[in-house]
Amino acid sequence: MTAYLLRRGLVCLPTLLIVTVIVFLLQVLLPGDPALALAGEDRDPAVIAFIRQEYHLDQPLPVQYAYWIGGVVRGDLGQSIKTKTPVTELIAEKLPVTVELSCLAMLFAVAIGIPAGVVSAVRRGSVWDWVANAVGLFGLSIPSFWLGIMLILVVSVDLGWLPASGYVSPFEDPLQNLRSMIMPAFVLGAASAAVMMRHTRGAMLSAMRADYVRTARAKGLVERVVVVRHGLRNALIPVITLGALELGQLLSGAVLTEQVFTIPGFGKLIVDAVFTRDYAVVQGVVLFTATAYLLLNLAADLLYFAVNPRLRAEVG
Question: What's the rounded Cα separation, in Å, for the pair 184 and 181?
Fold first, then answer.
């Protein structure tokens, strides 16, 4: 187990290094001059020259990268140009919001995707199978921003059941927090639910054709027991690892959803930073998100290793 973990960790290191290079080059790709943005409206040449020297903008890109990656290693992601707040503090402030949204979205994905996949596989060719596949196709095809706008129009404007936008901390009002997060979590989790439904269906179809399922039926076990204990239990092995990857997708893909519902999470933070040319914030948020996604990929590998006895036997 330890050797397997070390091998997977060593594979992640070069990927993480490449990610840092790409994230650093974002300041080159973004329009505008960081020194001019920092100088304000006066743009005094002396001030601009001082800013270039202070932030090493007068140095070649490799030297700038060396200074930046040195700060990253020390846990210093720089300061926001607009608010002068350390980027690490902004991340610590916005991260819980996006994590809550992503976890609720994953709950929707699991609650909808896995049962729909099981029913679709067990009732293959029936009307339930067609309905489940239609719902899955709907979830994959509908853009999240369009679905969010439609839900706001129907659920909030026409019916008045839930708030259209905004965020309330769970520590202030847990019930209002849940009311404000239900719609965006459903919108964010719809595509993941469709993906999990398709994977669960495929895994269940393979599991239900396996020898151990035929043996269980030959023993006279009730079909529900055969499906749940023997079919679903083995089909969930790849689905569990898929869930870890989908959670990484949710963390990094909440930009549009947070913008539509005005939720102050990572997505809104990075969009606002791009529009205001707050380069340090953009770099810090993208780097943190990419690192989290890599770590979730590693967690998925380890989770698959933990739940798959055959893989443990091969490694051992």
Answer: 6
Q: Are 279 and 209 in contact (CB under 8 A)?
A: no
Same domain for 213 and 123?
A: yes
CA 26 distance to own-chain centroid = 20
CA dihedral 9, 11, 14, 16 (to 10 degrees): -50
Tens digits of per-residue pLDDT, 80-134? 877 778 888 888 888 888 888 888 998 998 898 888 888 888 888 788 888 888 8
Q: State the DSSP H helix or E strand holding residue 90, giving kind and residue range, or none if neither.
A: helix 87-122
Q: Which amino acid is at 288?
A: F
CA distance 64 to 57: 7
Phi-psi region of 59 (alpha: psi -120 to 50; beta: other; left: phi over 0): beta
Query: Which has more confidence, 306 or 256?
Result: 256
Report the distance separating Cα 150 and Cα 257, nearest Å: 13
* Cβ pair 51, 58 in contact under 8 A: no
Name the residue with tokens 């393979």: 206
- Tell me the pLDDT tens digit for each residue of 249-287: 787 767 778 888 888 888 778 888 877 777 788 888 888
pLDDT at position 30 is 66
Instruction: Provide the phi-psi class of 93: left if phi over 0, else alpha when psi is between -120 and 50, else beta.
Output: alpha
Same domain, 63 and 111: no
Question: Does residue 239 belong to any structural domain of this protein?
Answer: yes
Q: What's 261's domain CATH number?
A: 1.10.3720.10
Cα of 232 vs its chain's centroid, Å: 26
Give 37's Cβ-side CA count (13 Å radius): 20
Whole-prediction pTM value? 0.79
* Beta-carbon-side half-sphere exposure of residue 162 (alpha carbons within 13 Å): 23
| Adjacent-strand bridge partners of 86 | 79
